[in-house]
Amino acid sequence: MEKQRKAPRGTRKRDVPLTKDGIYAMALQLIDADGVEALTMRKLATELDANPMSLYHHVPNKDAVLHGVAERVGSQFRAREWEDLPWQDRLRQLALDFRKLSHRHPKLMAYSFARADYVQPEDPFWQGLIDILSAAEVPASEIPRVAASLCAVFTGLLVSELTGALQRWTTLPPAPAGPGGEDAPAPAKDVIDAMFNCALDATIVGLESHIARTREEP
């Protein structure tokens, strides 16, 4: 009896229907493994064991997939859980959540940070930041500018960490050289954690000072 031949992968009928959430989940896996540039609609369809054309019934193109993936990752922010905390602690937790997501999905975040539109008004991160600044009693007219400045600070910190720049800067003179005059070793993770928290401390203190000045102004 002749053995029945299987259709090539990606052309067989799926046992489970495609969904947008399933497409975004697989796309995120592929991005985490190989980066955004390596993601194609054909490769995504192959990994989903689907006909490439069937993807277009759910998402029109790769940009739409990336937007959906970004929303999926952004939904992990837990800003609503901290509403009873002082605004300083809420801001710290928001920044630390941002950092955790960057470490969890470094290739996606590095790609996103290079785009001016990576933060959208409806993003949980942005909404959480606006709520925190409101709780801190930043004047409403200044909230957009302060929020934009904080985004730049957090992004700059994370970019320098993801690229390894932050780690390298700690080894520059006057950092002590190792035995025999070789370059100082890269800092341990707890050192980088402490540096990130130091930058957060400075940011929070600076914001407290800014708020105090605005209250003193006539």
UniProtKB/TrEMBL annotation:
Residues 40-59 bind DNA. SUPFAM superfamilies: Homeodomain-like, Tetracyclin repressor-like, C-terminal domain. InterPro entries: Homeodomain-like_sf, HTH-type_TetR-like_transc_reg, HTH_TetR, Tet_transcr_reg_TetR-rel_C_sf. Residues 17-77 form the HTH tetR-type domain. One of its GO terms (molecular function) is DNA-binding transcription factor activity. It holds the Pfam family TetR_N. This is TetR/AcrR family transcriptional regulator. It comes from Streptomyces sp. R35.
